[in-house]
Amino acid sequence: MLRRQLCYDISLHSDIELTKEVFPKIKDKRIIQDSPVYDHISSFAFPEYPVIARQGTERVLGDTRSYAHRIRQNRCLIPVTGTYEHRAIQGWAKKVPYYIWPKDRKMQFLPGLFQIIETTGPAGEKRQSASFGMLTRTANELMANIHNDGEFRHRMPLHLTPELESFWVSEHLTDDDLQVVFDYMLPAEALDCHPVFSIRDKKPRPDGKPKFKFWRYENLPPLGDDKSSESQLSIFNI
């Protein structure tokens, strides 16, 4: 089953200029040139963030009364280096944060929907604000073992192949075409992951490294084994 944005933490620490190599036909590159690079971005902070989009008006599959249905043609791609998620382990006081990234790609482009709202300022000037949401789906085995707790457990971003990413922002997509994209399940083998020190903590890591770097937890059970009787006694990094 497909839903809109539920993944709140992403990373973009590769050069955004790589987007031009993948999508050489992009006409307006100003947002790419001015876009900063982050090792962690949280949607709760409402940051400025570059997306690749083709504007238009259309509807989304499913509930014809939903807002997402009304902005179906407002499809965009969200460039990310990787995503973050928490894993719950029985007997551990805190969830373990993980960083997940594609094994064979420096950057991937997650499908989403965007909206642009125009308002009028006090002097009559026109103002525009934009926002976007990421699409998610039922998780593959790897992501289900990491995102294993909470209301939206066993879900993951809708990861696509490079061909399907380009297809998502192409001009002419039928309902059947969109359903093919929505149904695609990226194999667990195409992703890699490791635990990290924290995700949303504003304090820097004790070792000074970026958020997405590996952090070693003592007694961390392997993925899929979440009923460990070991307590979270201490944390070590290498």
From TrEMBL:
Pfam families: SRAP
Single Gene Ontology BP annotation: proteolysis
GO molecular function: lyase activity; peptidase activity; single-stranded DNA binding
Keyword Iron-sulfur: no
Gene3D superfamilies in the cross-refs: SOS response associated peptidase-like (3.90.1680.10)
EC id: 3.4.-.-
Entry keywords, A to Z: Covalent protein-DNA linkage, DNA damage, DNA-binding, Hydrolase, Lyase, Protease
Highest taxon in the source lineage: Bacteria
Enzyme class, broadest EC rank: hydrolase
Cited SUPFAM superfamilies: BB1717-like
Family: Belongs to the SOS response-associated peptidase family.
PANTHER family documented for this protein: ABASIC SITE PROCESSING PROTEIN HMCES, DC12-RELATED
Name of the protein described by the UniProt record: Abasic site processing protein
Source species: Dyadobacter jiangsuensis
